[in-house]
Amino acid sequence: MLRLFRGLKPYNWSLVGVVLFLFAQSLAELYLPTLMSEVVNNGMMKGDTAYITQYGAYMLIVALASSLCSIVGSYLSSVIGVGFGRDTRNRVFSRVESYSLNEFNRIGTASLITRTTNDIVQVQTLLVIGLRFMVNAPIMCIGGIIMAYSRDTQLTLILAVVLPVMLAFILGVARNIVPLFKAMQIKLDKLNLVLRENLTGIRVIRAFNRLAGESRRFKTANRDLTDNAIRVNKIMAMMQPIMIILMNFTSIAIIWFGGLRISADNMQIGDMMAFLQYAMQIMFSIIMVTVMFVMVPRAEASAVRINEVLDTEAEIVDPAEVKTGCTEPGHVEFRNVTFSYPGAEEPAISNISFAARPGEVTALIGGTGAGKSTLINLIPRFYDVDDGCVLVDGVDVREMRQQALREKIGFVPQTPVLFSGTIADNIRYGKSDASDEEIRHAARIAQADDFISGLPDGYDAPVAQGGTNLSGGQKQRLSIARALVRKPGIYILDDSFSALDFKTDARLRAALKQETAHSTVIIVAQRVSTVMDANRIIVLDEGREVGMGTHRELLDSCPVYREIVLSQLSLEEIA
User: Fold this and answer.
1) At the N or C end, where does the chain have fewer CB atoms within 10 A?
2) 462-463 and 332-339: which strand pairing?
3) What's the confidence (pLDDT) of residue 571?
4) What is the pLDDT of residues 222-268, one digit of tens each?
């Protein structure tokens, strides 16, 4: 947690202000019982109205000063806490953005969401409250003991008995509550995971009539978290009445023994009242420490999880010495590339070699799990190869800046991803400064202009989160338009025509051929009709290259390709 709090450096002066104002507030509160004692002993007992008025005015001034210091200190601690939470969220989000897909898979999306939201809130809340308590409580406790001792030495023995009992009770509670708080964040991760899977997979759940099963699964995760929270809150609920009972018994003991000393003329009434106030201040400061003991374990568990995100180094980073392209723009080459996913027993692709040049269309085809999507994910460097190298413009992608590399690429993923906003915003995502005409041109090429124009708001029509208000084909065409609008040197289309009908597919491919005449186009497809006109077709089978050539060449030389063709086309279409 201390490592995480290094992020407080920008707030050093605010921290100094919190300490000074809360220190002044504590001194004022410690001085008030002394003034009250003076009023009772020297004013009320003697009936001196002028004396009472004078010291009453002093008490009012001190109380106002204490309130003002408390307000300013609370404001500054809130500013520090909320600012620290904002900065930490930015740091976590920036670090997560730099992760490769391996780090995402290792930590998990649901856990990353929890760590960026709930965990940071726990630390932020501790900071806001802790800044006040950490300054106020020690001063009130130590100062109260000194002032109480100065009022009556013998009554201080009551505190010598009560305070160790309270501290022992607090330590016992902390020992039992710390493991529960650590478990709570893990159970919250599990609940978020189940909830996220249910929300994103609701169509599949309904299609297979698994609503009841998923409801039971959610209830199990929810009950697990609830039971843990109930155990925590039972312990916390037990603390307050026990503390209040101890405070009340302490008050009774002070009044009882103080009354005996007053009757023996060994103590004045004002001193006993001041002693009682100091005792309450001491015990209240210990209660504040108790609250901290309740909050620190959970915040500590959250801080560990946040630090885990911040300490996780991205596997894919920019090189120390950056190289730029030295061949014609858009040139892509694979040289004996082998790649395995973490923990996999076998490579996903092995010994892949080919070159894709500007003005050509290179197609990848093969069965499910053949390694087509894995192969194209290596071009924008979503993963790093195990062996061999991937070259873009004649330079190994590992020797290029990631931003510069990805600026050369227009990527259309296998599953189209849209963002909340408008249709124009989603197309402009490919080029932030694209004009309206550029957006319309990209939509026309992607065969999306017709359906966009038919919407009530046209290009300003809203897109729901994830594009749920659009069909699969509409989302695919918008994803293609988003890649087209940036006019890159390399187009990567990962099975981007699967949701299109054959007529739209044909029109789109014809329009793309003209638009991308001077760019390198790499297409992953399942349909033979989509790839048969490509300049080069690469056939993959179980991660290996089993054929390369044109459609006609592969029909004669590659049994795997011939089998795929025969499964989709009739003999007349092949001829």
Assistant:
1) C
2) unpaired
3) 56
4) 999 999 889 888 887 887 788 888 888 888 988 888 888 888 888 88
- Tell me how far CA of residue 259 lies from CA of 247, 266, 267, 268, 530, in angstroms: 18, 10, 9, 9, 99
Question: What is the rounded CA–CA span in Å between residue 532 and residue 505?
Answer: 13
Sign, Cα dihedral of 293, 294, 297, 300:
negative
Sign of the torsion angle spanned by Cα atoms 39, 42, 43, 48:
negative
Angle at 236 between CA 230 and CA 238, to 5 degrees: 100
Distances (CA, A) of 227 to 187, 219, 223: 10, 12, 6
Q: Find out whether 564 and 525 touch, Cβ atoms under 8 Å.
A: no
Burial class (CB in 10 A: 0-12, 13-18, 19+), 368: exposed
Q: Which residue has the higher pLDDT, 177 or 125?
A: 125
Residue 146 gets the label, from left (phi > 0), alpha (psi -120 to 50) or beta, of: alpha
- Contacts made by residues 557-564, CB under 8 angstroms, sequence distance 24+: 560/366, 561/365, 561/537, 564/365, 564/366, 564/367, 564/528, 564/539
What backbone torsions phi and psi does residue 207 show, to the nearest 5 degrees?
-60, -35
What distance in Å separates the CA atoms of residue 156 and residue 482, rounded to the nearest whole number?
A: 77
Residue 44's pLDDT is what? Answer: 59
Q: How far apart are CA 382 and CA 414, in angstroms?
A: 14
